[in-house]
Amino acid sequence: MSYALLSAGFLVAALAAAVLLARAAGPRRPRWAAVAVAGVALLLLTAVFDSLMIGLDLFDYAPGLISGMRIGLAPVEDFAYPAAVAVALPALWAALTRRGGVPLGALLTQALVASRPVSWVNTAFPFAAAMLLTTREIDWLLVVGTLYYLVPYNLAMYGINDVFDYESDAKNPRKGGIEGALLAPEYHRPLLRLVLATNLPFLVLLLAAGGPAAWAAIAVSTFAVIAYSAPRLRGKERPVWDSIISSTHFVSPAVVGLALAGAPVDAGVIVLLAAFFLWGMAAHAFGAVQDIIPDREAGIGSIATSFGARRTVRLALALWLLAGLLVLAAPWPAPLAAVVAVPYLLNCAPWRSVPDADSARTNRAWRRFILLNYGSGFIVTLILILAWNSSA
Amino acid sequence: MMPLGYLGCLLLGIACMLLLDRRFRLFFWRDPAAAGLVTAAGTAFLLLWDAAGIASGIFLRGASGFATGIVLAEELPLEEPVFLVFLVLCSMVLYTGAERILDRRRRGRARRRGRA
């Protein structure tokens, strides 16, 4: 592709964004006279400093791909950068600082809380570990993907959930009262916009970097993130399906990482992913037990409200046991991870006969479960390091 | 000192922009959250542009003695993202500054007309 064509593409994208943003800014639209003043000044500065930088040999251009027209030493195509910036950024600034909207600082604080920072590592780690173990090097794709699964992905997952659970959370006196972290309705649309703006660029990059396998994995992952709580789909209110989607949230980043890294799909990988998936389903099912009573009062379905506390706890025990047994079938040193299943079984087993009426008490085990995850993450990391060294 | 020449100039430029920003409360000193988002989005967009140019084989890293020589990715020197942040800050200080001056002139004209 020639530099002229490339720059035209990005310039058009910037102008289109500027038009949309200027419209979104409403009465606080950008002052086009000021845009013109800043634009002319930037173009002049570019002519001077670009020439200087090229003269100092800080960068160069492939001779066959530029038009050859220059202002000073600067190729004319270079002027698309300041032009795009001078038009698009004031429009973005106007849209972000318009009056009447929710305060941006407050929105960002809400978004940070909504993205559950304690859980960031749960999605970023599977991605980074899967990719790093396959490619054995840290490249830009690993960094970009890890950043994506660290923050924007979690903002999408929990943000969409907080917006569309608002109705049911507000209706549910226990949830609304005790948790108190309800997302006020005026933040709903801005938060969804922020989710879109933070996720879309990363998804486009990951899709562009990957092949069909990565596209499929990203499609499944993105669908699961939306389908868990978005209206109509509402996977979280469909028993069993809720546990499956929840587990997909955590396993799919690993699958995306493997696909982007071009890892060979062998039996060992499939067994490990299956074990991880069962572990995730068990975690979701057990977590749902503590909410049986409030969920039923609010008319919300879940795997636990439909199976009852006793059967759900036993199902979770069976899934954890199965996950532990499955890793025994994977190649060395993965079988070591079987030991990780033991604390979960011990933590959950005392509740195997808990009646529905006492299900809220399992919250004690749930809180221990969250601590256990850090311990297991540590053990799994040690096993990964062992795998790294033994395959070197 | 030479290898730090370019990076040093960029950081100095950024510092100057921030001083102007602070003195006249233009950008970060007016709305830190919005300014942070504009800077992040602008830099990310320009980095994508660079990446596409590098992937197409258009941009090549120079052999200047004024660069640190540290590269973040193929043909992407450490200085480039710093330059992009500077470009974003410079544009926004220019824009918000121009807006301020134009507003002041318009208000001045309106006041003179009101008196006449």
TrEMBL record, chain A:
Subcellular compartments: Membrane
Transmembrane intervals: 34-59, 79-97, 140-160, 202-228, 317-346, 366-388
Keyword Iron-sulfur among UniProt keywords: no
Keywords per UniProt: Carotenoid biosynthesis, Isomerase, Membrane, Transmembrane, Transmembrane helix
Major subcellular location class: membrane
Signal peptide positions on this chain: none
Pathway(s) this gene product operates in, as recorded in its UniProt entry: Carotenoid biosynthesis
Membrane topology term: Multi-pass membrane protein
InterPro entries referenced in this protein's UniProt entry, alphabetically: Lycopene_cyclase_dom, Prenyltransferase_related, UbiA_prenyltransferase, UbiA_sf
Highest taxon above the source species: Bacteria
Descriptive protein name: Prenyltransferase
Organism listed in the record: Leucobacter allii
